[in-house]
Structure formats: C-alpha cells, structure tokens
Design goal:
This protein is an alpha/beta fold. It folds into 3 domains: 74 residues; 186 residues, Rossmann fold; 68 residues, Winged helix-like DNA-binding domain superfamily/Winged helix DNA-binding domain (Arc Repressor Mutant, subunit A). It has 19 helices and 12 strands. The strands form 2 sheets. The protein has a 9-stranded mixed sheet with strand order 1-2-6-5-4-3-7-8-9, with helices on both faces. Strands 10-12-11 form a 3-stranded antiparallel sheet. α1 crosses α6.
C-alpha cells in the first residue's frame, strides 16, 4: 500500500516469532491494554506460552470467559506468523511497549497501547517535540485560516504536528505542515489497510512517501472505522504530544475529548478564540473560559512550553545522552526553582560538573533556567 523497505523491520526487543504473538493477541476481541499487560505479567512476557495456555490458566491470568472464547476462536484461524506477512506486504512496522523507539510520552500514559502499527517513520528525537492540532470537521473560513497559520508556523519552528486525518481541521493541519516542510503524524481509528475518510488517501500517501511523517494506529489490519474507536484514538493523539491546540470546535466535538485527555495526561491545552456569535467556536471559547491557554500565534505556545531553543534541544539530545551526573541532578530538581549553589551543595558534585550538566539539561529541555541561576523542571 505504501512505498517503504522491502523487508520487515522488526522490533529491537523481540524476535520475529515473539512479535508474531504480540500481533496475534492484539487481534483478539476483549484483550485491550489492561488485559494485555496482565498477560505479559502473568506469563513473564512469554506470549507464545500464553497463546498455547488452557482456559483455566488464562482465567488465572486475568481473562474473562468472553476474552478466552475469542482467543480460542483466533487460535483456530491460522498461525500468528501469517499476520506479519500481511504487514510486510503493506510496508507496516509494529512497535511494542518493549521497543526503545516506542514513543516515550505515550508509553507513560494510563492504558498505553501495547502495539503501534506504523506506516512511514517515527523519529525518536524529533517527535518528542510535538503538538496536537485538532478541531471540527465542519471548518469555517476563519478556522481554516488559523489552522493553516498555526500548522505552518509550528512546522517552521521544528515542532511536529499530530492530528487525526479527519476532514476539516485535521486535514488542513496535516497538509499545511507538509507544505511548510515540517513533520506530521496522523493517528487513525482503524487498521492501516484502510484510509478514512477515503478522500484523504492522497494525503495519507503523501505523509508516508514524502518522508515527512507517519500514519499510526493501535488497531490491527482489517479493523474498519467505528464510532467507539475514535475516543480511544484521541487519547493516542494526546499521549504523543506535549500539548494540544484546538483551533476551532463547537461544544460537542471530538476535539474537546482530545483536550480532556490532554488534561488527564498532564499536557498543556491551547485554544484559539473567536466571536461569541460563532457556533463553531463555542467549544474553543469554553476551553479558554475553563483555563486553557488563549493563543493568537505560535510564539504564545513556544513561550508557554519553554521550547525557545528547539533545534539546539534536538541536537543536544541526539549527541549527548543522559549520564549518571544528569540523573543525579534531575532527582534533586523540582518544579520549584532551586539556586545552583543549593544544587551543588546537596549533590556533592564539583561546581564545574554541575554547571556543565545543567547547561546540557537545559538544552535538552529537561529543566528551565529562570534567571539568577535558579533552575526547575521543565514540565
């Protein structure tokens, strides 16, 4: 379906045989993130053993009778390895929670997806500096204008734009980001062998084949768009990003579900204001009333998220991996600013070591410098 590598790019933590069982379990109805993790814990990550277990053992592991029945049905449908062959033909990679390049922010939300199906390429260093851009499908001329402007300016600032490939704001955000030469990630609420809406097939191909982004889903091949999948998709958008920007949304909008997930995940929420007479912006205006950041330009977002030195942060994270000194200092720094002299005293490290490490940590975006040699956690 998409151009890409001619061989299956497997997990760096699992063999192809092990990965086949992860993929097989992800197809079983009734085995979501919670039960998947119960199986991993009970069988000590040996999902091949779990796949072959009897009903009594599966019940002891935490599966109910419906999930057990679903598993027994899927066992009879073919070998787990067959799914990997389909994924290879479609140039779709699978990332698991055990992979080092599984997105760090997403990994740490409640009920993180055990697997991610990826067409295109995720980039560990760059993609951590991402913002969700979401909004209504029935976008107005105003909503189109502000979404294009924010997406283009985010792209030019080196910030990855994440959205849901839906009509309206999502489509505009992805397209404007690509046009500006930026990276964009589209989260789908169905298997990657289906593009929904169908009229975004060209956009989906462009995201993958341009090398400027990726399509991502937690759902296996063959799963069609369904209303109950979209809220779950929205939690992935929120989980991947540092914050969520809602450019235009009425009060009943899936974009507001994403904003609520962002609050649950400890992310920043931004909203663009509009006329109180514009029904399509009643949701964004309400978000502002409830405490979301009112923003009128990308600089407002950059200031709120302390990402003034984004290119330097990306370069520093790629070139300077975390070490013991950084870990020790990070444990001592809180959200309340501390003076460097106090950090030196408590850490017991030499002054030159602390000064150098704090500078590197600031470049990485781990901490903020508030002036007067005061430092605190960045987020």
């Amino acid at each position: 379906m998409f151009d890409g590598p001619t061989h299956y790019d497997t997990s760096d933590a699992l063999s192809l045989d092990d990965l086949a069982y992860w993929v097989a379990f992800n197809r079983v109805p009734g085995i979501g993130p919670v039960r998947f993790k119960l199986l991993l814990a009970y069988f000590h990550d040996n999902l091949a053993e779990a796949w072959k277990a009897d009903s009594k053992t599966l019940a002891q592991a935490g599966l109910d009778q419906q999930a057990i029945a679903g598993l027994l049905k899927h066992r009879a449908m073919g070998s787990p390895q067959q799914e990997l062959e389909k994924l290879e033909r479609l140039r779709v990679r699978v990332l698991t929670l055990r992979d080092s390049d599984y997105p760090y922010l997403l990994k740490n939300i409640p009920n993180a997806p055990p697997l991610l199906y990826v067409a295109g390429k995720l980039k560990v260093e760059e993609d951590q500096f991402a913002l969700g851009v979401v909004g209504t499908r029935k976008v107005s001329a105003y909503g189109r204008q502000v979404t294009e402007r924010f997406a283009q300016d985010l792209a030019r600032s080196g910030i990855v734009v994440v959205s849901g490939l839906a009509r309206g704001v999502d489509t505009i955000a992805h397209t404007a980001t690509l046009d500006a030469g930026g990276r964009t990630i589209a989260i789908l609420a169905n298997g990657l062998d289906t593009i929904y809406p169908a009229d975004n097939l060209g956009l989906a191909r462009r995201i993958v084949e341009s090398g400027q982004g990726a399509l991502v889903s937690e759902l296996p091949l063959g799963i069609k768009p369904d209303a109950h999948n979209f809220p779950a998709r929205n939690r992935i958008i929120s989980g991947l990003v540092m914050g969520v920007l809602v450019t235009e949304a009425p009060q009943r909008s899936g974009a507001l579900i994403t904003a609520n997930f962002a609050l649950e995940h400890g992310r920043e929420v931004f909203a663009v204001p509009h006329s109180i007479y514009a029904a399509g912006s009643s949701g964004t205006n309400k978000l502002i009333q409830d405490g979301a950041h009112l923003v009128t330009c990308v600089e407002d977002i950059v200031a709120a998220m302390n990402i003034f030195m984004l290119p330097q942060q990306v370069e520093a994270q790629a070139a300077l991996p975390e070490n013991d000194d950084e870990r020790a200092l990070l444990a001592l720094i809180s959200h309340e600013p501390s003076h460097i002299d106090e950090i030196i005293r408590v850490s017991g490290l030499p002054t030159t070591t602390v000064s150098a490490a704090l500078l590197t940590m600031e470049l990485k975006g781990m901490i903020k410098h508030f002036g007067g040699m005061q430092y605190a956690l960045a987020r």
